[in-house]
Amino acid sequence: MYTAPDGEQYFIIDGHIHYWDASKANQKNRHGEEFVNCFHDYQKGLSPDEYIWGDEKFRNYGRETMLDDLFVDGYDDMAIFQPTYLKDFYHEGFNTTERCDLIKQEFPERFILNGSFDPRDGAAALDYIDYLVDDYQIAGIKLYTAEWKGQSRGWSLNDDWSYRCLEHCQKRGIKNIHIHKGPTILPLDRDAFDVKDVDHVATDFPELNFIVEHIGLPRLDDFCWIATQEPNVYGGMAVAMPFVHARPKYFGRIMSELLFWIGEDRILFGSDYAIWHPRWLVEQFVDFQIPTEMVEDTGIQLTPDIKRKVLGENAARLYGIDIEAKKKALAGDAFATAEVA
Amino acid sequence: MNAPARRAQAWAAIGEVTDPELDQSVTELGFITEFEVDAIRGDVSVAYRLPTYWCAANFAFMMGNDMAERLGELAWTQHVSVRLLDHFYADEINRGLADNASFQDTCGHEASGGLTELRATFRYKAFMSRQERLMGWLLAHGVSRETLVAWTVADLAAYTLTDARGLHLRERYLAMRRSHTPGDFSGQGYRGDGREIAFVTAAGKAIAADDLDAHRRHIQSIRMNSEFNATLCSRVLAVRQREVASTDSAAGQALAR
């Protein structure tokens, strides 16, 4: 829970967090080092100085650091694990469902656990979805279309097995599909950040919700267009959030566009922890106002009610969380007491 | 042409190449990490490094290919070598650059065609972004909407500007307005006589003063997208440069000399 200086209160569901191990011992090859290095450069490039970590800590920050950062120093009430496997780069994977589940088991009220599948596994991917649903009770799926696998350097949501996997998710009662569009390699002659494949799956799977991480940037216009047409498409703010600090005016334009095109009910906060720390993101987002000249131009404001939706209420609706009941359930736990102390 | 002049000419030639996503010169962006010229023999050797190991492979290839082409066009160059460093696709791209292979040949089964269409897309985006920046600046500095939409290329070029920012934005827009036919961003040569309308839509049509707001809103979204990548890239690049600064501080400055 975050209480702003003006007394407004915000229940925070952090829609995008990682619990990774990118230590040297877990790195399989140079790509593993370069992958985490890129994340670390993002942290260094877009965080306030006091939130920049050293190399060793960033590669493997561990359980206690994460729990403190999210729930004691940070204002998160709940957080959603979005696994990213990268088994071609890391022996045990970068951030797997199995690894996140260790923490989720310890603090089941605090975490939502999502799984992942790789359509290139073919029929085995369907079995893997079953295993995640049966053994881990996953609440959603996170997909990373730029993941390498053997000779393959990425896949498309429109691929045949991707469709079969999504059908299977639907059958098994999974509703929320988070899509991370990294720069894909294939095909090399196309725009690497294209989000148009989201349009097709959103039309063909109307019962599923598609949360497009980093709101389709750098193809925000395409994303807004698709989301305007498809009521089941949402925007995840991971990676866009730190712009509130790095480029506030630009962040104002992003928020204006999103609110204009897709509205206040389909935008979800995410820190992308451990790249960025939720404490300063929440403080600065709550403090943020769209610049006056932009408001005069568009009439769009970012009110406390809208911020409450983005920071928690929208995710609560997607994941079936009753915020008032949840507040009571969390009131006496280890983190609530730590915050008071 | 003496050796320093050839060296300067080669540096200027690669400086014409832009990062397709950011629409900024590769030399201004600090991508060039090695620049060797043997002016007598006509050998030029360039190495470039992008902000991250994961920058899109097609952009990486385009920049290398464009640099090799620009250098190859100079009258005195004999052997040109362009190499990409620290990139996940560096081996394949460098093989392609060394053999002067097409993008399709370089990538084999991993590409499904040439880069013509992609290049045209990025030229279109660059054209619109440059237009949007210049229009915004002119409108904020006293040019009326009616005047703006009626200007010919010659009018725009003749308009008195003293501010450095305004001059820069006009130069960049005119460079594209004069070399491309809007509506056809395939890169075919364009010969205008200055009497064409200066500010046109992507299809090459004049804009009515009443439609200017809608037009600007549309092209602003193109600029917003490139600004996201531009910010990420420049921040990450700054981190990288700070970190290498301690080991080879003079290298970057020495390149341009």
From TrEMBL, chain A:
<keyword id="KW-0378">Hydrolase</keyword>
<dbReference type="GO" id="GO:0016787">
    <property type="term" value="F:hydrolase activity"/>
</dbReference>
<protein>
    <submittedName>
        <fullName>Amidohydrolase</fullName>
    </submittedName>
</protein>
<dbReference type="InterPro" id="IPR032466">
    <property type="entry name" value="Metal_Hydrolase"/>
</dbReference>
<feature type="domain" description="Amidohydrolase-related">
    <location>
        <begin position="13"/>
        <end position="321"/>
    </location>
</feature>
<dbReference type="InterPro" id="IPR006680">
    <property type="entry name" value="Amidohydro-rel"/>
</dbReference>
<dbReference type="Pfam" id="PF04909">
    <property type="entry name" value="Amidohydro_2"/>
</dbReference>
UniProtKB/TrEMBL annotation, chain B:
<dbReference type="InterPro" id="IPR034904">
    <property type="entry name" value="FSCA_dom_sf"/>
</dbReference>
<protein>
    <recommendedName>
        <fullName>MIP18 family-like domain-containing protein</fullName>
    </recommendedName>
</protein>
<feature type="domain" description="MIP18 family-like">
    <location>
        <begin position="8"/>
        <end position="82"/>
    </location>
</feature>
<dbReference type="InterPro" id="IPR002744">
    <property type="entry name" value="MIP18-like"/>
</dbReference>
<dbReference type="Pfam" id="PF01883">
    <property type="entry name" value="FeS_assembly_P"/>
</dbReference>
